[in-house]
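Review form for a predicted model. The reviewer records the input and the model, then writes brief findings.
Reviewer: anonymous (R2)
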Amino acid sequence: MTASLPLMSSPVSSGLKLHHPKAQIFIPDRVPEAEAMGRVTHLGIGAHQDDLEFMAFHGILNCYRRTDRWFAGVTCTDGAGSARAGRYADYTDEQMQAVRVEEQNAAAMVGGYAAMIQLGHPSSSVKSSSDRSLQDDLLTILEHTQPEVVYTHNPADKHETHIGVVIAALDAMRALPAEKRPKAVYGCEVWRNLDWMPDEEKVLLNLSGNANLAAALNSLFDSQIAGGKRYDLAVTGRQHANATFLDAHSIDETTTVAYAMDLTPLVATPSLDIADFVLSAIHRFELDVRGKLIRKMGSRSGSGKAVQDEGHAGGHAERMRRFERGMDSITVGHLTATSAS
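Model under review:
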């Protein structure tokens, strides 16, 4: 057994009416809860303990050791289903949950978060299409924090719990009055990268020059790393690859970059269909690949016919064209190397 970290968290007070009895809030500098919530400018909403540090490091950096910007984290699930090996191999689900809560609170301490909220939902409820408890909890948190920027999972992620979280997060943000919605919402990389997106639609989150802080945060999740998954190496490796393989014709201007999908239009315009929004991006990727192949293959390729076939895949191509026409006045993404300064 590993020693417990000497961190204190408290049950949620009456200011935050949340669903699950395991829900808790940890405030590293121990200011009153209302003050902690009111100072938040950047909010990360992740499915599991460690998701925030892996996908929303840009937000943590933007607020690190500042008094005018504050990052707060929300972890939605209880962490019971994680892989385990080595010294954690014989841990029960309850023991693993306790360890992961401690690890996440330790990251909040090291990263100087305004607050760390752990909601304790089981993954089964997060993945449910009928359970609204997570959406309600996130709406409560958003009403109390009113962040300017939100980082969450991208809706093309392959992990179903991550999809449950991003849908609940988007629905909660859409339920806010328009003037209280975040100004920017980023869908970030975890269980599927975003290299496939057209470059002009990628949001580039520059993480360069902060390897020590990233390593300090990532190393805190020992139950995952020593327990059989080298997420720390995988995440930093992806970020280095993003920086290098972004442009084949210029030298690297950054050393580590995270890609994000700009989800702001989905929050600013709640009538947009989330599935169509994502599938239209995938369709543009398909057109890019087809275009390059057809230009080289010329008359040898019959592939171009499928793009023009309105009946192809149940009318998917035409549906995407209709959706994209409706997006004409909305900026889908932008190519900006956002500095963490």
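Findings: DSSP finds 14 helices and ten strands in the chain.
Further findings: Residues 1-6, 307-313, 331-336 have pLDDT under 50 and may be disordered.
Recommendation: see findings above.
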